[in-house]
Amino acid sequence: QKEVEQNSGPLSVPEGAIASLNCTYSDRGSQSFFWYRQYSGKSPELIMFIYSNGDKEDGRFTAQLNKASQYVSLLIRDSQPSDSATYLCAVNTRGTDKLIFGTGTRLQVFP
Amino acid sequence: DVKVTQSSRYLVKRTGEKVFLECVQDMDHENMFWYRQDPGLGLRLIYFSYDVKMKEKGDIPEGYSVSREKKERFSLILESASTNQTSMYLCASSSGQGGEKLFFGSGTQLSVL
Fold this sequence. Notes:
The complex is a heterodimer of chains A (111) and B (113). Chain A has 111 residues and is mainly beta. Chain A has strands at 4-5, 11-14, 19-25, 33-38, 45-50, 54-58, 61-66, 71-76, 85-92, 99-101, 105-110.
């Protein structure tokens, strides 16, 4: 079992819709969860982080964490073509500052 | 803004060559990391460092070594480059104060022929 799992996609959504990206992780001791966005040919950039169960909202982005189910998700409201990218889920390794990354989900937002 | 600078955007080397990839960060971050990124495999950690002259192996350290002589600089060394080390190499840094928010450099696409 991979430590951090994501569906590779592509996930295709129309402009204006809600895009829902999901991630599961195996280490129950993980405490920090991150979403990175990576445009083609570019390096990853941090867009959201969450430490506690529940929802965290930042503009059009909402991160959701359910530690009991070992599940973290990213919702993008009012999706725009500029949101088309690969979204990487990352989870910390218990007791360290190391992050384990999923392989990413490719999102396509079409006009 | 945090700036993480990698010395080369593209690099072409021959099998058996010794290769140096340099990374510099300007935010006085404690932690520095080297990842490689391959299609379908995602980001994999090669080595990381929590302090000057300190290094720890990541998940795929074989064939690589690192050097951190100054806090701002973290070098990745391929002692004898092989074709299976053709990849995108990404350097990252983080503050190390309980926060694991990584800031990435722009990456080095290394091709080993």
